């Protein structure tokens, strides 16, 4: 298969083909997997949206713009030199800690939403093969380290800015990692850490990184520019094309408006149709199912569910899920239907939509900063389970910025053991692309859900669950890395516009 619309086409791989090649290739820590940052792991965006969000907090517009500049990757020698001269002049005299804190804030508020999910899967495939992950960039630590930490890179090569007594001097320390400088840095790192470049992998997008790709045995051009595409065709390098995640537009805002109307309308309809029963549980169940259906219909988000039978039985159970998006609440309602309530953080009570709905559904709200109060709040949940109502909880405790599955807290597992009910994992994929972590805007797309078989925790040692809980967390990691194919012999559902 070849690319189209370029002067020189090269062999284009699908992401699944690239991952299959990694799995069939060499393994172990001596094999390096080197990723360029801008344009390969993260795509470009307009700084204006981030400026608007941060200026009200008193941040400096010039510093913000300088940190966002060139994250897409420089295309010409002069472009990078102008960037470097500008930031050296602008950052001189500022405390290193100020730029570090601002870079972390920018990642949380903006940059995390522009990481390529495809790059995430590639990184995880190399990690599973035991390769040494290296992220490299011509940019500064302030721009790249927050993303590197979230993506799981222990080794990061970047252009170092000189610091004296904690203050930036306005000079570069050593040689900028640009063109041959980046390739040289990787070569030195490989020599120091006994890495075998003749078996290594490299991914980059722009012409200045051609020396980097030429350095390793398995180069791949990602979203290549014209000159990189030409070299890829000449050298028969494989090409990967990642889809950029754009900022929300008018269609997304309209979709969100209709979706929220559908959610609220569905919730009211659900309550109204069961109000004569005067049974709050039946009204809550009807509210949840109608609200989820209305939200899916309004936003036109599709769902694909594998293992739907485990969402219905056994009941009651403690359902655990990986939490990345506000849209997860709609997903949970659509998958589980009736007969459940949730354990959610206290902050959700301030949400004008989900707060009241969750109160009516009988959710338990916990203050994560109050450990003693949390234990007291969770005690009645055991009786809720014994009475026949299932519980859903995110064991990570908060939404993640990326598909990364964070450490699991123990509360859900203790509750299940005390109540004598199973744990049922629900692995959610793509919800973070539908609604970004710090946004209420709903984008179009498809959410995949894999409901895994129930896990009996009755014989777990309450005093030492650490190893068992980590094995459950690894089920989420493995499922996201190697998504299961639907089994035609068991029921699965594809929810369309009306949640049918």
UniProtKB/TrEMBL annotation:
Entry's Gene Ontology cellular component terms: membrane
Entry comment, domain topic: The HXXXXD motif is essential for acyltransferase activity and may constitute the binding site for the phosphate moiety of the glycerol-3-phosphate.
Protein name in UniProt: 1-acyl-sn-glycerol-3-phosphate acyltransferase
Enzyme Commission (EC) number: 2.3.1.51
Key words, A-Z: Acyltransferase, Lipid biosynthesis, Lipid metabolism, Phospholipid biosynthesis, Phospholipid metabolism, Transferase
Catalytic activity annotation: a 1-acyl-sn-glycero-3-phosphate + an acyl-CoA = a 1,2-diacyl-sn-glycero-3-phosphate + CoA
GO BP annotation list: phosphatidic acid biosynthetic process
Membership in a protein family: Belongs to the 1-acyl-sn-glycerol-3-phosphate acyltransferase family.
NCBIfam families listed in its UniProt record: AGP_acyltrn, HAD-SF-IB-hyp1
Upper lineage: Bacteria, Bacillati, Actinomycetota, Actinomycetes, Mycobacteriales
GO molecular function: 1-acylglycerol-3-phosphate O-acyltransferase activity
Keyword set includes Transferase: yes
Enzyme class name: transferase
Pfam families, per the entry: Acyltransferase, HAD
Domain Phospholipid/glycerol acyltransferase: 317-431
